[in-house]
Amino acid sequence: METLMWACLLLVLYPVNTITLNYGQERNIHLKETAEDGLEDLFVSHNQHNWTVCGDNMCKCNEINQAFCLNQGHKLNYIPRFEQNITYLNFTGNYLPHIDNHTFTNITNLKLNYLHLQTDSLHTCTRNAFNGLNFLRTLSIRNSTISKTGLMQCLSGVTKDLQTLDLSYIHFHPPLNLDLDESMNNSKIKTMYIRNIDMTKYNHSKLSTLKHLQSITILKSYIKTVTFDYSSSLRTLNFSYNKLSEFPKFCVHENAYFTNLEELRLDHNDISSVYPEQLACMKSLASFSINNNLIFRIESNTFSNLPNLNVVSIAYNGKVKRLDEFAFNSSSLKQLYIYDDNTYFDKNHIHTSLNAFKYCSQLETLRVSSNHFGFTTNPMFDDLFGNLINVKSLSLSNCGLTFLPSFIPNYLDKLEILWLNNNNIKDLPEGYFNNFNHLQIIQLKFNKITTVESNTFSLQFLQQLKYIDLSENPFTCSCELLWFVNFLKTSSIRNVFLHFPKEYICDSPPLFKGKQLLQVRLSERTCAITKQVRVIIISTSAGILLLLLTISAVYRYRWNLRYILYMARFQHIRHQRLLNGGGDYKYDVYLSSSDTDFDDVIYDELVPRLEENMGLRLYIPQRDGQGNKIDQIISNLDASRKVILFLSDKYVEDGYCEFEASVAYNKYINEKRDLMIVVVLREIGALNVTKTIHKILSVDNYIKWGWDDESVELFWLKITAAINNMDDLIP
Ligand SMILES: *[C@@H]1O[C@H](CO)[C@@H](O)[C@H](O)[C@H]1NC(C)=O
Ligand SMILES: *[C@@H]1O[C@H](CO)[C@@H](O)[C@H](O)[C@H]1NC(C)=O
Ligand SMILES: *[C@@H]1O[C@H](CO)[C@@H](O)[C@H](O)[C@H]1NC(C)=O
Ligand SMILES: *[C@@H]1O[C@H](CO)[C@@H](O)[C@H](O)[C@H]1NC(C)=O
Ligand SMILES: *[C@@H]1O[C@H](CO)[C@@H](O)[C@H](O)[C@H]1NC(C)=O
Ligand SMILES: *[C@@H]1O[C@H](CO)[C@@H](O)[C@H](O)[C@H]1NC(C)=O
Ligand SMILES: *[C@@H]1O[C@H](CO)[C@@H](O)[C@H](O)[C@H]1NC(C)=O
Ligand SMILES: *[C@@H]1O[C@H](CO)[C@@H](O)[C@H](O)[C@H]1NC(C)=O
Ligand SMILES: *[C@@H]1O[C@H](CO)[C@@H](O)[C@H](O)[C@H]1NC(C)=O
Ligand SMILES: *[C@@H]1O[C@H](CO)[C@@H](O)[C@H](O)[C@H]1NC(C)=O
């Protein structure tokens, strides 16, 4: 009985799990570009080199001929001598307020090609001060308080072979009017890098003698207006992080100022529009970037006249409300980035043409993440992107997608990388991934995928992947997911599941919420039972359990219950008898014995002697009983003056006998009458000594039955005495 109960209990509660981990389900995503960037300083890790002290013990030199004289302050107020082979000098945090044609005499004999002067309190400079440094290729002046004339005089003496000029963190008031024609006449400079120098106006004519200038970068210099001039050498122009509010004029009647410009970056300005005719002249342009501006519209054929254009980036504009039809018409465009532009791609926003991406079929990379596709239907997707059959990398992350669009498997045969993270995609349709032969990366992190069917991915498909990321989805850890859990536990290609197991977490059922998939104990056996059956089993088990508990309680107290019931019924009879002085017993002795014992011993040996020889009126249930046994026991025990209990193992195992014993014992207690004569027929096994039997045996000296003549005589002696003891009231 107990075992069965526990079995039921286990069935109901299995597979309980009480460990819950709180795991952030949603995370704020920041796709905004970090605002800071610019020139990365030459990477010099001081630990990787064998340093030697040099430069009058105030500098350090290493085996790749670099000298660093750092932060000596006023102590180092001149340029010291170095070994012949030093080619690079970083002179930072020292004291060099005035530079003239003597300053560098200690190093004119070196083949120095890199000089970096930073935070040296530089204030004035005389003409031709750098004249002696014939091998100098890169000059960097940073963080100084030099005046405009001072700077121009410095530059005027710079060797004609200088190739890179870096001027950063120099404050001018009023803003610098950069005029290098004056000072760097016929310089061979190729790269200009200017950062954090106040310069509201930029006039390229003032650089017109720099016939070799290829790249100009001016960052964070508050440029508001620019005037360009013709240059065929310029390849790269980078005016990011300035204050431009209009697209600069690069074209004059279809003629380009910079006929060979290949890269144009105008990120982080305030430009609100760019029209086709403003770009059309730049036939060499390959890469165009206008991120983080205020562009609100891309007109038809904006880029169609740029035969070499490869990359267009119009991200983070936050306001792009309108993409006209054929906006990206281009026979050469390979990469298009229009993410985070707050653009809506659905019918409620009619300004976005579904033909915007027509005629740019060379496109290989398309990133339209962080726009609005929440209401875009499959036919609309087909219209928008269906012709982009050469796309290898597609990102529709954070677009409010609620389903996997069908154009992806239907048209993008060459797809290699697919980013669909941070959407609300719920299902992975069967067979969706069947026809991708080149797909290598699938990013589906942070969606609403609850389960993965066993036929979603073929094994062969998974083997071809670099990775697939299904982390941070609200998995339902039910039996549907069992195969997946088992697969991830056992398969050798589980490594393709990025962030497994740490970020593959159950969201439901509540029992498993927050637990890793890998830790969930779903067994084949449990899952063989369907959900409904489980519900039924759980409810019936609970019912059975309750029933069992009731039954066991009733069983345990059965005799007490019955006794209470019957006592209530026979109360008035007893009351009557007491009134008559207790004399009117129907029987002298009630024989309580098990059926086996009765047949074996009692009927032949005892009954004749008691009845015939001693003339006693006996009540023997086995012989005289009829009708309801319980009733008989109660009423006849009640009508008997004495009861002989013949104890043995058989007696104890017999329910009715136990009942008789307990009724007799209760009468003994309640009526305070010495009515029990206890005969131990056979020794009772220790296990069989129940509570009632124990109580009975301890009440009185019991009589032992014996088989030899002597024992038999002793028995009769004792039993006669007990029966004849009419004074049966307990003292
Ligand atoms: C020169 O040293 C200073 C101080 O360590 C450092 O900030 C700067 O980046 C270095 N410059 C170059 C070009 O390595
Ligand atoms: C530093 O010197 C040691 C011994 O002189 C040499 O083995 C090691 O390669 C040197 N390290 C570098 C980075 O040159
Ligand atoms: C540079 O010159 C010094 C002294 O002439 C010499 O000890 C050192 O080995 C040289 N370094 C290299 C890399 O040649
Ligand atoms: C050259 O170096 C020596 C010490 O090495 C120093 O005394 C002298 O002033 C330096 N010359 C110049 C022009 O800085
Ligand atoms: C330095 O310039 C002065 C004139 O400003 C000139 O007299 C002197 O000869 C120059 N010295 C050297 C070493 O070039
Ligand atoms: C720039 O110079 C000032 C003093 O002129 C100094 O306090 C500051 O630390 C310097 N900044 C850098 C980046 O070197
Ligand atoms: C530049 O130098 C040339 C001679 O080398 C000279 O004729 C011309 O006037 C100079 N231009 C400027 C702007 O100084
Ligand atoms: C730019 O510089 C050229 C040459 O010095 C000059 O003729 C022109 O007026 C300047 N333009 C502006 C807008 O300042
Ligand atoms: C131009 O500026 C951007 C920042 O907008 C920077 O990332 C890029 O490296 C710069 N390019 C060059 C050639 O300096
Ligand atoms: C796309 O651009 C090409 C080249 O400028 C042009 O000839 C063609 O008409 C354009 N297509 C459409 C549909 O406007």
Kindly describe this structure.
The protein is built from 18 helices and 34 strands. With 731 residues, the protein is α/β, with parallel strands linked by helices. It has a domain at 581-724: Toll/interleukin-1 receptor homology (TIR) domain (Rossmann fold), CATH 3.40.50. The protein has a 19-stranded mixed sheet, with no helix packed on it. A five-stranded parallel sheet has the order 31-30-32-33-34, with helices on both faces. A two-stranded parallel ribbon has the order 5-7. α7 links the parallel β26 (441-443) and β27 (467-469). α1 runs antiparallel to α10 (531-556) and α14 packs parallel to α16. The longest helix is centred in the last third of the chain and has 26 residues, at 531-556. The radius of gyration is 51 Å and the shape is elongated. The two termini are 43 Å apart. Bound molecules: 2-acetamido-2-deoxy-beta-D-glucopyranose (10 copies). Residues 301, 304-305, 326, 329, 359 line the site of one 2-acetamido-2-deoxy-beta-D-glucopyranose.
